[in-house]
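Support case: KG4 complex. Customer-provided input:
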Amino acid sequence: MKEYITILGLESSCDDTAASVVRCARAQCADIMSSVVYGQTELHADFGGIVPEIAARAHAEKLDYCVEEALSRADLSLKNIDAIAVTAGPGLIGGVLSGVMCAKGLSAGAKIPLIGVNHLAGHGLTPRLTNQLAYPYLLLLVSGGHCQFLIVRSFDEFTRLGGTIDDAPGEAFDKTARLLGLSQPGGPAVERAAKGANPRAFKFPRPLLDRPGCDMSFSGLKTALRRARDQLVEKNNGLTLTEIGELSAGFQAAVCDVLVEKSRRAMRLFSAEFPTVKPALAVAGGVAANKAIRAGLLAVCEAEGFDFVAPPPEFCTDNAAMIAWVGVERFRAGKFDDSTLSARPRWPLDNHSRPMLGSGKKGTKA
Ligand code: KG4
Ligand code: ZN
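Agent response - structure generated as follows:
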């Protein structure tokens, strides 16, 4: 039996082209030997959102380069790779296809096994890569296209406790930034603008807190923000920097309050099912990079007796180390794919739950 498993991961489901090499000794934690990410922010900047055709073309152009760079930074060649793990969905079909075709080419050419990975599983299992978290745990997946609470039972067993019925929070951050004339991606821009500003200067709703359960809604919040902005613009012919800061801070606080309160409910459901497990809430996805949201979640975890696990921000946003890590877990379980692997733009993590309503920038929510 080999001492190490070495996996090359590829990611191209949205607007980041990424490759990574992750090496894992049989019984030890993993080493991220390289993680290369090429963002496409500038390519889409003039369009106010991601243009799928431009994204797909850029992925196709950058993937080979990313793979070379990831192998060279890890000081390895394809000969040292035990399997290629690639995002096969959910995501923008053109981008996912670019990655799957690239992985199939490498797999066939170098005779390396192929593993198709669910992008959301990549985010969801990241706390195991970065923090060695044991199953089962509660996961809040909160990104540009998704928002859901999941019980993670194993690398391919997820139970959804609730999720957004309309926009994902990342999408709402991005739209808020657009409304306030801030740059994309909107999350980091809104977070910067909100720093030090009064979050109570404007009153924003906390949608669905009055209803039981863990479902969430963020589109009304965006509408409330638009209304507040329009009133100010009508009155003063524009927004002051202070107002942009206060609107950003008010919006961020509302998202934070909803996520915190719904997390509390999800934690109680988790504890009811696993009364003897040392419980942990892990966050994953781009929005989990937000410091105010992280602080809110940490506080509710302390109050509910949960460990709080937040991967480093660069592994919260899209990257290929998380895909390689799912590759490690599937490799260990002997779960491989072959040249019939297909791209799945919609691919729910929890096959037993009904599909969520609404549609995000990546299409109907998985
Ligand atoms: O997970 P991710 O990189 O891509 C998807 O799979 O969606 O998440 C990207 C999303 C974007 O909407 C971005 O605005 C948001 O995550 N985001 C943030 C922050 N950093 C990224 N949202 C709030 N605060 C941040 N610091
Ligand atoms: Zn993602």
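The chain has ten helices and twelve strands.

Case will auto-close in a few days if no follow-up is received.
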